[in-house]
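Record type: ASSEMBLY
Status: queued
Input:
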Amino acid sequence: MAQELAHRILSDLSTAFQRHPNIDEVGFIPCPTCQHNRSPVVVENNKLGIETWCLELIFPYAHDKVLRARGRDDNGRKIKVSRSARSLLEATRAVLLVQADCLTAWNIRKELVEAEDLKCIQDLKFAALVLTKHPKSSETFAHRRWLLKQIVQKTTSTSLQPSPVSQASHTNGLVAGDQASGGAAAVPPLNARGTKSGGAELPCDEKLLETELAVCQSSAERYPSNYYAWTHRAWVVEQVARCHYKILIKELSDTRHWISRHISDHSGLQYRQFLITQLATHFRSADALQDEFLPLLTAEFELLTDLITAFPGHEALWYHRRYVFQQWESVLSMCKCPKSDNSASSTGKNQTHLQQGHPEVPAELYAHSASSFSRDCKDSKLHATVVQGNKKAKVDPAYTEHHTLQSELELCRNVMATCRDGWQVRLAGSYQHWLQQRILGQDNTSL
Amino acid sequence: MKLYSLSVLYKRESKVHLLMGGYDLQSFGYFQRGSVKEFMVFTSQIIVERCREGSRSTVKEQEYMCHCYIRTDGLGGVLIADHEYPQRVAFTLLNKVLDDFTQKVPAHLWPDGNQNTINYTELDGFLAKYQNPREADSMMKIQSELDETKIILHKSIEAVLERGEKLDDLVAKSEDLSVQSKTFYKTAKKQTSAV
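Status: finished
Output:
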């Protein structure tokens, strides 16, 4: 009896999908018992609704079918059954709409794709539907990645070769120290500088990419701090768009608004960090970094200052600021001119100590904090060093002026002096502490 | 940061009724919206019932923040937002809405008014406009006469209930909530306690 009913509901579901090919959302309708003599499957405005009372009927029924297709009965014993592709599609669909993390069901669908009973695009559409009800289902995202790989492999094997950027994309960009040393050397600039493949076409189908990014966006919207959605998005940019310069820039500007409306979303900010790190790898020469990458970081600093002051008390923003500052530091250290080495001259201990101890810290950072050093520490020797360091600076002062250690510390002081939000004051304090630790190391904690 | 509901209520002798409500439930699933709306009304009503005239309070309930301002004349407003939405803007908006409502709807209509008898259509507009708190930027800067220290913060709806009262019972007893919404409440509760 129950089996029969479950079977009927499953075919109702199939009919619904046939009649409404554009169903774009699925949801459950809270309903403890079957109250009316009608189907629990409803379609309204292209939204598919399933009344909750029937879930406990259809799920075991469909799940059993799925297991049997795997040649196992309920107790895990092997059995011999062959099913038609159609009935497998129906059963896995019912299971996944209810329980999106059923890997067995997704795997059966993978086999159906391989046997060409199911098209990749169709299944992407279905998986997108599942995500409207289960926006942080990791198995659904994993299945999407598998499907996308199938599509990308097909297209690359026929036409495109892997771009040089994708090979570089796995090194950790600026953060990796080995690139810092070679940064100013004669590595030819890539796409971004317009020399090699600047106007090159996207390494993938634009529409495919667009749809995928939209799916990530809607999942992130449905569930706050949706780690799965944002890591999937990063994967898409890396593996489908091959970290194409145009896409990175577009994503950076597209997520800007989103971030301004989701100021406590760590995952979203982390995605921006991914974009910025990947962008950095596009600028190989010191000039490119300075002229094109630094302005991006400046913009990020400005965005953060704006959000931090307008909406106090959100930890995610402060942590993102640490990342931007780190990037800033490494860029400046790369832009530093290596040849003007006259450090052996006048100043002695302090300078050599600083340069040995903190090779990653550019002189400019000290330069702009000079006044605070001399005021706070009354260390004239250090001050002298700092001034000398400044002469070595090759970086355009227009950029360094704004976001040096000094201006960062000033932001902290301002916030701590004026903000009435206790949590915000603590966040500013911990950022200040982090800056001091980072720049000065253990030896100069007196600042 | 999001605003979900903005309602104007009237409180007299600890009885509360809804005069007008505006909702933005786009971010909820299509089939959930009905129940979510009923619960927003239900919650707003409970909070106004339990808070004193002349007080400002914010009740945190899961990831939602219910900001409530009841004037001494019994007119009250509740704004349900997420936790990112700035509290100061929320209360400035409530001030503004109640002032506007007083101007457009004569006070003698309040005691017996309801959504059908009262003609006030501004709430949806306010909600839409203030979805972006920057709209209120000038207000954010003014640091208006609102003193944040006077806003009472409750950590849950249970915290505003009277001793011995239970939210589950109130939900079960409520005549304004449909069977579907009550089921919705139960399943939602099961899910949150399971996590």
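Annotation: Chain A has a mean pLDDT of 77.
Annotation: Residues 86 and 140 of chain A are 21 Å apart (CA to CA).
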